[in-house]
TrEMBL record:
Subcellular location: Cell membrane
Source superkingdom: Bacteria
Pfam hit, one: MFS_1
InterPro entries assigned: MFS, MFS_dom, MFS_Na/Anion_cotransporter, MFS_trans_sf
SUPFAM superfamilies with a match to the protein in the record: MFS general substrate transporter
Domain Major facilitator superfamily (MFS) profile, chain residue ranges per copy: 1-255
Protein name: MFS transporter
Membrane topology according to the record: Multi-pass membrane protein
Transmembrane segments: 17-40, 68-86, 106-126, 206-223, 229-250
């Protein structure tokens, strides 16, 4: 929802008052919302229980685990394209399809709306199929692979002369990407047990979000060198394929990892 509101807002502010206003206003909104949250949110008392078991699983063991490695590679590779969308989409519409800054902001908001729909639909439908008795592993991986493969048409928008069809294809691509995204987060939960979910999500998220550093830089270098988005989108397509291969061939079944049984002397008395 932040992208749907924030990108059109930033485009409007830049159009009316210059680029500095986009940073100032959005930062102020963030601070105000943070203050409201501090005032309104009241932490609930958490009931504690005796006999809470401490996890003995080491990160070194998790970092060597096939599924953890596969999910981290897959998330990084898929997230690469997500960060192209987040950081370069308005500029792409402005420079390649000659939309004004104002129109590119609102067009980006429309495109990201497709992503919101996709993430809700992908998560709900995959859970529905699992409840109907389909293999959890097949369902999760199928949604990821199908979603990422059907994101690839984004490259067809390079050189397309119709703004309408460009936006329509990009809505589709972001929709399908989000269908995959809802399931690569879900399969991480499926694979993580209660003893490892915090650690595994940290590893996947930490490695995956390096794409937020790498993708904008590589994309900018490519665009500067070629004066075109085609090669940048082609590189993104390559990362989508790597992600698919990782989830299919490296990530194991969507079931909890087996961890050593915890001994009684590893029990925390509260």
């Amino acid at each position: 929802m932040g992208l749907i509101v924030g990108v059109p807002l930033a485009g409007t502010l830049i159009f009316l008052y210059g680029w500095q206003s986009a940073f100032t206003v959005t930062a102020a909104i963030g601070v105000i919302l943070g203050i409201i949250w501090i005032i309104v949110y009241k932490p609930k008392e958490i009931e504690t229980h005796r006999g809470v078991r401490l996890s003995t699983v080491k990160w070194t063991d998790l970092l060597r685990n096939r599924s953890v490695i596969g999910m981290s590679i897959g998330f990084f590779s898929a997230n690469y394209v997500n960060w192209i969308f987040i950081t370069w989409l308005p500029d792409y519409l402005y420079k390649s399809h000659h939309l004004s800054i104002l129109k590119s902001g609102f067009a980006s908001g429309i495109i990201f709306t497709g992503g919101i729909v996709g993430v809700f639909l992908g998560g709900w439908l995959s859970d529905y199929l699992v409840k109907k008795g389909f293999s959890r592993t097949i369902v999760r991986k199928s949604f990821i692979v199908a979603g990422l493969v059907l994101t690839i048409p984004m490259i067809a928008t390079v050189g397309l002369h119709s703004a309408f069809w460009t936006i329509a294809i990009l809505v589709w691509s972001d929709f399908m990407y989000s269908v995959a995204a809802s399931n690569y987060w879900t399969i991480m939960v499926d694979i993580s047990g209660s003893d490892t979910i915090g650690s595994i999500s940290s590893i996947q998220n930490g490695i995956g979000n390096f794409a937020g550093i790498v993708a904008p830089i590589i994309t900018g270098v490519i665009i500067s060198a070629t004066n075109s988005f085609y090669l940048a989108f082609l590189v993104g397509t390559g990362f989508l394929i790597i992600s698919c291969l990782s989830y299919v061939f490296i990530v194991g079944p969507a079931k909890h990892l087996k961890v050593p049984e915890l001994k009684s002397d590893h029990t925390l008395q509260l």
